[in-house]
Amino acid sequence: MSQKFSSLAEEGRLRTEWAEMHMPVLRLIRERFEKEKPLKGVKIGACLHVTTETANLMKTLVAGGAEVALCASNPLSTKDDVVAHLVEHEKMKVYARYGESREEYYEHIDKVLDIGPNITLDDGADLISTIHAKRQDLIANIYGGVEETTTGVIRLRNMAEKGVLKYPIIAANDAATKHHFDNRHGTGQKTLDGIMRATNILIAGKIFVVCGYGWCGRGVAMRAHGMGANVVVIEVDPIKALEAVMDGFRVMPIAEAARLGDIFVTVTGNKWAINREHIATMKDGAILANNGHFDVEIDVVRLKEMALSQRRIRQHVVEYTLPSGNRIYLLAEGRLVGQTAAEAHPAEIMDMSFAIQALAAEYLLKEHGSLENKVYLIPQEVDHSIARLKLKSMGIEMDELTEEQKEYLSSWTVGT
Q1: What is the per-residue pLDDT across 188-198, written as a single tens digit (0 to 9) for each?
Q2: pTM of the model
Q3: Is 180 marked within a binding site?
Q4: Was 216 annotated as part of a binding site?
Q5: Architecture of domain 183-340 in CATH?
Q6: What EC designation does it have (predicted)?
Q7: 18 annotated ligand binder
Q8: Is 219 annotated as a binding residue?
Q9: Tens digits of residue pLDDT in 96-135
């Protein structure tokens, strides 16, 4: 290895060690895995954001006896020092680099699949969809997969409903310890972090438009409001829209909000939440950011077609000048702003999310013979065990039901 690569690997090792200090639940799982080796002989293919937190998940799976291969789930979220650390110090198969082309992205997915995985770990379902589209010869040896994101789960549930899903999936995203914390607190913090690092602007006083009020949108709106922004929410679901109103936010159509907003963030899981018509009415200086998994939520292609000129102002900021003379600023190429312009979720958040991934892999190995080709929730007892471990690591104790209380809750004869 070159001296430069070794230096990069050492930087990655230190940053991964720092993340590990803040991931106590995953550490406890790793300690058990090292003793029990529940994944011995299992091959795991992973398509995830290659970060320090992901490195600790990979180390946990290897501690459990698995052979792993990892590629990136986003071309701009890879931390090259982490790749160097895993390759040089941990001797793992990692196929990723920051800024890889679309062609390289899918070449790396194929290299991961070349190990013949028994379990797949996905963040956006690109690994699973590639298997179903091009590598169906691998399916006979696959026990199941785990999906991390809202967008990926939507894709996979559609596949299951149409009868084309070929192996069972655990929806890690739908675990309470995932969406309550990762999607809300993690996405909320990392989105604001990405915007501020990219732009160095003041959030307070801005009209901050959040497209989508699922768990991620709730988190973004909450964090923006906490920093003094005037938050506007865009929704198509009446229940979520009503919830946003009750949470104290203005709700309106995007066509109306487009004329008002200073900062726009998309977290919908759908394409073209902000389209050409919306962009055309935005005021000079409007900032567009996406934190949905795929780069389709803002119609970047039409934005480029509309613009008379474009130039890069800062590392993650491109200015597009429209025929009206108004300048629109796109962050992180319309990709995950919190992954690209910042360091993604804090380690404390990914501690729970990756604990789910590790325990879901163990669960699939034990139970795959009894599972159908459907999308499953993680068992509640696993979800609760992760929450208890997290509370314990924080030094927090909680009450338990007494026998009398349990009996009362299970009874139908005791009333007023």
Answers
A1: 999 999 999 99
A2: 0.85
A3: no
A4: yes
A5: 3-Layer(aba) Sandwich (3.40)
A6: 3.13.2.1
A7: no
A8: yes
A9: 999 999 999 999 999 999 999 999 999 999 999 999 999 9
